[in-house]
């Protein structure tokens, strides 16, 4: 009979770092993954001569060797840094309102003030004060919360206590009058799927601060290289991985985890499980709603499944310059009404908001010589896709992708003519590969009520823990970090027993 | 003092707590979302299909169509014209599989047709043509593959170059175009050995006669005496003559392995950009040792040992894809395209080296971290793999 200290379900970012942390601590670990490739969202696929990056746009928290960020620290601890080559992006992002404002923000604070001050001279001072707030907030957050200051108080960290749950729209209104300026500074709302009216200021502040302070990065070989490196380190640390092997159930007895049974019927005895699968699947399917403690049912009750994404992956037969693409990260925003933009995430109407990443701008080796690739993405809920007849699915997907390309062509007019390979992924595609309800890529919606202050990575079933976007923020740095911290919680629990 | 002791001092915290309380009372409990992904994918893309042969249709002396229905009696998943299913078969105690393009129209999924031609040493085709009867049940993958019309960049002016049984994906595309009255212009140039060998001949002629946007030309490589139609192979000259100006047209090529070499070389002389030439995956090379980059010191009949993590050891011929050697040893790994492109069989190589022919579509980081695609990986020395 197979007995493990811990069974980790799912080899996404959170599952990989959880399994690796445990294996490196000398624990006997089994990592189960339903797909045949590790990474979850952090993966790639090949079409023709292109290898398309699936999910990573801008990796946060890396920092430079001189000024390392938290993620660099974690990857270095895991011993995978020397296997990976990181590429720093030159600029933060470009925002284009087709036919209107077109601005590229650099990655330094003063530079942003200068660029935006040039475009909005009357509000230059306000930009500087806003960034002061972003910095003050983030530093208070890091010192008070991240480093767990025992003397944390409203008096010591006034900005943190005042601004955490304010919504982005209110804070922007406090500083600015021009709606375009507000839209430019809050464009990262699209990284969480929550429009400025509902997005907690803490999220925007920390995202902006982290990208400015530690710079946006990508890596050679894309996010699959990171997933492969983490798995490799895990195997070298003695971990056991089973691919094409979904968990079928988590066996619970007397309120405690006893085993995980795989889809092939193998029983893996264990007292600890870290699930990187959605909490919805973990609770309702793997544990079973009839056996689920009321507490856990309540944990997910009232939370709403967050957005998935629609991405058009394009391989072009020319260089970025020939397409007129000079930035890695381009936001194309055809409206300043972010509420209406976010409502379209729930329909199949053409969207007014998209992001176009062209990795070859910062990494000319990303695609074969003389070519480049672009990922054109917008967030979208799966709901309207449920109503598409199975036989109309392919056509609907292509029609939707076509509308997105048309939006992008308002900024880059020749995209279509240069497409050599092209694939579209809908929320249902994400659902197929991730197994998440709604094909959600960030877990539950990330409203203020869903922020870290209200979440726990532990079930009320003893020994059952969670890692990944369903119990933390979405995105690479949060999920990679979450696996490690959940693993530490499990290590502590094992020691305490 | 810790953060948890001062949470209520954060502005807005108490309101959010109340909101959470209300939502926990009245909000959605997700119970209706149990098995959601599995339920939806069971309709759109189940991992496995159970297919029952409902009819066997003789197309030509060497070719039959197997009409496959769901053994469960429900509709089969939707597919795009040009996609294939990988059909699992068992013969002489060995379980293996072959990808077959669906030749029927995607406008209905009460059945999928696969059209099979007898091939020399055809381990699987013989089983399907000779030993299969209505009522037999096979397991397969869901439809997959990227040899389909992509309206985002292929345009509507299409030239199909088919050889022999390579007509099958085109038949599905042509049937779809005719059934749905699509506004696509299709020129099919279809190479067969002899006139009696042309699969779907009558139906193609009927469709071409009825649809002005679909033209069909047969090219016979071994014409009988007195044959007056087009003869020989599909050449650049012939394509130019039939298609006229090739600018803006998208070419699709599907046929036996030998046809690609010849046909793609011909197309190259037309100066078409890469994106205008789409090729179907065509399986492992017939003779891998003839491939560019094959090391001279290894011959096709060399036999190496393959150790599987966990202990089993088997022997594998250098000239045979590793997947086949595994199957002969009764070891199943996931298989789908059997051409090196779908990545479903991706396997970790722990030691040793393998040869991948050009065109094996491995991720860059998979090469770096020692992953192989066993369906087109050939052992060059003793190996150890992780399964």
Strand content of chain A: 15-25%
Could you tell me the radius of gyration of chain B in angstroms?
26 Å
Task: Assign the CATH superfamily of the largest domain in chain A.
Answer: FAD/NAD(P)-binding domain
Query: What is the CATH class designation of the largest domain in chain B?
Result: Alpha Beta
State the distance separating the first and last CA atoms of chain A. Answer: 22 Å
Question: Which class of secondary structure composition applies to the elements of chain A?
Answer: alpha/beta
**Which ranges of chain B are low-confidence, i.e. pLDDT below 50, for 5 or more consecutive residues?**
none
CATH level 1 class label of the largest domain in chain A? Alpha Beta
The residue-averaged pLDDT of chain A reads 96
* Known CATH architecture of the largest domain in chain B: 3-Layer(aba) Sandwich
Given helix and strand content, the structural type of chain B is alpha/beta
Largest interface: A-B, 80 and 66 residues
Kindly provide the radius of gyration of chain A, computed on alpha-carbon positions and rounded to a whole number of angstroms: 22 Å
Helix fraction of chain A, binned, reads: 25-40%
Number of helices of chain B: 10
**Quick one: CATH superfamily of the largest domain in chain B?**
Nucleotide-binding domain of ferredoxin-NADP reductase (FNR) module
Order of helices and strands of chain B: HHHEEEEEHEEHEHEEHEHEEEHEEHEEE
CATH topology of the largest domain in chain B: Rossmann fold
What does this structure look like?
The complex is a heterodimer of chains A (497) and B (387). Chain A is an alpha/beta fold. Chain A has helices at 13-24, 70-77, 109-119, 124-146, 158-163, 168-175, 179-185, 201-214, 222-236, 279-288, 294-300, 320-323, 338-343, 383-386, 393-409, 427-434, 476-496; strands at residues 2-9, 29-32, 44-47, 50-53, 86-88, 91-96, 102-106, 217-219, 240-242, 247-253, 256-262, 267-275, 308-316, 329-333, 353-357, 372-380, 419-425, 464-466. In chain A, strands 1, 2, 9, 10, 11, 12 and 18 form a 7-stranded mixed beta sheet that branches. Chain A has a 7-stranded mixed beta sheet with strand order 7-6-14-15-16-13-17. Chain A has a two-stranded antiparallel ribbon with strand order 3-4. Chain A starts with a strand and ends with a helix. The model of chain A has no long low-confidence stretch (mean pLDDT 96). With 387 residues, chain B is an alpha/beta fold. Chain B has 3 domains: 46-140, Elongation Factor Tu (Ef-tu), domain 3 (Beta Barrel); 157-279, 3-Layer(aba) Sandwich (Rossmann fold); 291-386, Ubiquitin-like (UB roll), CATH 3.10.20. In chain B, the strands form 4 sheets. In chain B, strands 4-3-6-1-2-5 form a 6-stranded antiparallel beta sheet. In chain B, a hairpin with a 2-residue loop joins strand 3 and strand 4 (94-101). Chain B is globular, with a radius of gyration of 26 Å. Chains A and B meet through strand 3, helix 5, helix 9, helix 10 and helix 11 of A and helix 2, helix 3 and helix 10 of B.
């Amino acid at each position: 009979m197979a007995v493990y200290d811990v069974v980790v379900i799912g080899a996404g970012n959170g599952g990989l770092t959880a399994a690796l942390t445990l294996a490196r601590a000398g624990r006997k670990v089994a990592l189960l993954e339903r797909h045949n490739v590790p990474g979850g969202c952090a993966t790639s696929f090949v079409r023709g001569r292109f290898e398309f990056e699936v999910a990573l746009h801008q990796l946060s928290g890396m920092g430079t060797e001189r000024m390392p960020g938290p993620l660099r620290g974690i990857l270095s601890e895991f011993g995978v840094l020397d296997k990976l080559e990181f590429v720093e992006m030159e600029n933060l992002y470009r925002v284009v309102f087709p036919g209107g404002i077109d601005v590229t923000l650099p990655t330094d604070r003063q530079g942003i003030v200068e660029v935006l001050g040039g475009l909005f001279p009357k509000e230059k001072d306000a930009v500087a004060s806003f960034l002061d707030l972003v910095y003050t907030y983030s530093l208070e957050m890091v010192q008070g919360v991240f480093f767990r200051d025992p003397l944390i108080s409203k008096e010591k960290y006034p900005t943190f206590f005042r601004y955490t749950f304010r919504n982005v729209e209110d804070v922007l209104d406090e500083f600015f009058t021009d709606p375009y300026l507000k839209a430019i500074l809050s464009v990262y709302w699209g990284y969480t799927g929550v429009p400025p009216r509902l997005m907690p200021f803490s999220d925007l502040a920390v995202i902006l601060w982290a990208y400015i302070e530690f710079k946006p990065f990508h890596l050679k070989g894309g996010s699959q290289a990171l997933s492969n490196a983490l798995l490799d380190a895990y195997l070298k640390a003695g971990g056991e991985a089973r691919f094409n092997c979904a968990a079928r159930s988590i066996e619970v007895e007397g309120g405690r985890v006893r085993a995980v049974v795989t889809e092939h019927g193998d029983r893996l005895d264990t007292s600890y499980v870290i699930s990187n699968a959605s909490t919805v699947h973990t609770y309702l399917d793997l544990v079973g709603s009839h056996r689920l403690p009321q507490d856990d049912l309540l944990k997910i009750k009232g939370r709403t499944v967050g957005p998935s994404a629609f991405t058009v992956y394009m391989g072009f037969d020319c260089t970025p310059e020939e397409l007129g693409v000079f930035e890695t990260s381009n936001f194309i925003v055809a409206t300043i009404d972010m509420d209406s933009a976010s409502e379209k995430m729930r329909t199949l109407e053409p969207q007014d908001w998209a992001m176009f990443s062209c990795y070859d701008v910062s990494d000319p080796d990303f695609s074969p010589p003389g070519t480049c690739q672009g990922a054109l993405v917008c967030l979208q809920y799966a709901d309207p896709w449920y109503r598409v007849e199975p036989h109309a699915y392919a056509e609907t997907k292509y029609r939707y992708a076509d509308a997105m390309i048309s939006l992008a062509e308002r900024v880059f007019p020749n995209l279509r003519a240069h497409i050599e390979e092209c694939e579209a992924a809908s929320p249902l595609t994400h659902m197929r590969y991730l197994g998440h309800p709604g094909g959600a890529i960030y877990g539950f919606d990330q409203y203020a009520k869903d922020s870290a202050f209200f979440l726990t990575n532990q079930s009320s079933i003893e020994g059952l823990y969670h890692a990944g976007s369903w119990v933390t923020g979405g995105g690479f740095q949060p999920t990679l970090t979450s696996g490690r911290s959940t693993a530490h919680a499990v290590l502590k629990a094992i020691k305490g027993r | 003092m810790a953060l948890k002791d001062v949470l209520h001092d954060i502005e807005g915290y108490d309101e959010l707590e109340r909101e959470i309380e209300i939502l926990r009372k009245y909000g959605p409990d997700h119970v209706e979302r149990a098995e959601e992904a599995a339920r939806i994918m069971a309709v759109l893309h189940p991992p496995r299909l159970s297919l029952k042969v409902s009819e066997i249709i003789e197309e030509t002396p060497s070719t039959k169509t197997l009409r496959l229905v769901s053994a469960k009696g429900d509709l089969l998943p939707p597919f795009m014209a040009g996609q294939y299913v990988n059909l699992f078969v068992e013969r002489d105690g060995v379980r293996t599989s072959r990808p077959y393009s669906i030749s029927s129209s995607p406008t209905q999924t009460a059945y999928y047709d696969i059209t099979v031609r007898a091939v020399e040493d055809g381990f699987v085709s013989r089983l399907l043509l000779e030993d299969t009867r209505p009522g037999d049940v096979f397991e397969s993958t869901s439809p997959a593959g990227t040899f389909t019309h992509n309206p985002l960049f292929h345009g509507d002016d299409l030239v199909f170059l088919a050889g022999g049984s390579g007509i099958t994906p085109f038949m599905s595309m042509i049937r779809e175009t005719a059934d749905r009255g699509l506004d696509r212009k299709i020129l099919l140039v279809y190479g067969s050995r002899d006139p009696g060998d042309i699969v779907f001949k009558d139906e193609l002629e009927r469709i071409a006669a009825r649809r002005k946007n679909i033209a069909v030309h047969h090219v016979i490589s071994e014409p009988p005496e007195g044959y007056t139609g087009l003869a020989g192979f599909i050449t650049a000259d012939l394509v130019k003559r039939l298609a006229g100006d090739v600018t803006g047209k998208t070419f699709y090529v599907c046929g036996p392995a030998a046809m690609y070499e010849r046909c793609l070389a011909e197309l190259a002389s037309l100066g078409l950009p890469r994106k205008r030439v789409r090729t179907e995956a065509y399986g492992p090379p017939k003779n891998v040792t003839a491939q560019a980059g094959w090391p001279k010191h290894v011959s096709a009949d060399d036999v190496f040992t393959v150790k599987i993590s966990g202990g089993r050891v088997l022997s594998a011929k250098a000239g045979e894809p590793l997947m086949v050697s595994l199957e002969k040893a009764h070891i199943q790994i996931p298989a789908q395209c059997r051409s090196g492109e779908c990545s479903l069989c991706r396997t970790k190589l722990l030691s040793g080296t393998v040869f991948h022919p050009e065109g094996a579509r491995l991720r860059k980081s998979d090469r770096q971290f020692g992953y192989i695609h066993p369906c087109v990986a050939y052992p060059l020395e003793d190996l150890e793999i992780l399964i």
